[in-house]
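Reply to dn_fold:

You asked what the input looked like. This is it:
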Amino acid sequence: YGGVFIKLTKSADGALKGAVEQSAEALDEVAETATGSASNAADASRLADQLLAEEVANGHAFQKHVVDGGEFDNLGITTQTQFEDFVESIVSSSETEVRYAANGKIFYLDSSTKTVVIKSPTGEATAFRPDYGPDGIGWSNFINQQAPSASQSIKNNPGYDPVNNGRTY
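and this is what came back:
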């Protein structure tokens, strides 16, 4: 009788050990999935920043503001690759102020270099420095007259509703 009890205990012990191991494996999978999801979200954000920078560098902004306007000369930016990397550093920085216009445009305002990056909902994007170039109106003038104000930025406004023309339910 004592031997049978020991065998049952060993058998139950093995089953318990197996269940614990399966639970640990399941928890590892959940943690891996959660980490993967966070990683995927971070990767998606990085990719969006890279694509925006690529769009800016390969669009009109490089020719108009870098080559012709010379707006980035004092930053040593002369090539499309340098310009793309610079724009990406602005849009991916947590230090960059971001404002949202009611028309869907997103303004990235880098006060340290006085550079503006604008992403339009139509897919157009640009980067320029309002203090420089032939059309330079000045950083302060641009911020005060053409960029959405921080308080009016739709994402900072408590009354902002992201659903077109309000809710339907």
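Residues 37 and 43 are 10 Å apart (CA to CA).
Hope that clears it up.
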